[in-house]
Please model this.
Amino acid sequence: MSFIQVYGIALAIILGMMFVLWILSLGLKNSSIVDIFWGTGFVISSWVYFAFTPDGFITRKLLLCVLTTIWGLRLSVYILWRNWGKGEDFRYQVWRKEAGNQWWWRSFFKVFFLQGILMWIISAPLLAAQVKGTPDKLTTVDFLAILDGKACRLSFYFLGFLMGNVKPGNSGAPIERIRSSSVVLLTFGFSRHSPPPNSSVASRTASSGLFAQISFVNSSRSV
Model:
């Protein structure tokens, strides 16, 4: 199967998972369960790509999927532990209150569908690294993923910083502070378009970016 075909299948699977998660959130009345699923979604995506790319270099495929699995499950377990017994994150409660009776369907597009599309886009390099069998040996870049992952995240931390701090237009745009919490909800710049909790955009992007950078570099070497 070609890259486009596998990528299309992944889109259907990811959106299907998000749809099921959305249905579950309606019963729980808790849209923040999407945060728990974020890491696990990449784990599932990486193994979907693994299954549909039989021509890829098996050692690299396994390395990539194992690293993604360790990262994704650790992130999901941590967020589950952090949120256990606390109900819906207050930042989603803000949206729920603003939308009123329409939140049940708006939440699908504003939270679950949007994060599904982001997951699909960010996961593309995980497919690019597995779809071809060349180079047919582990390279320096592969070992970099194990030995020095933090260095690979720097550019993505910068991207996350921009999403939270770049303010087009009015440089005096305010920060909306939720009185009941010490956490700041950003309402300016690119962060206003990101689903809450937008304060975690940098860490999410940086963590996912480790595997995105490693796999993209390897895939480009095989062209």
Remarks:
- The mean pLDDT is 77.
- Residues 3-28 form the longest helix (26 residues).
- DSSP finds ten helices and two strands in the chain.
- Strands lie at 176-177, 184-185.
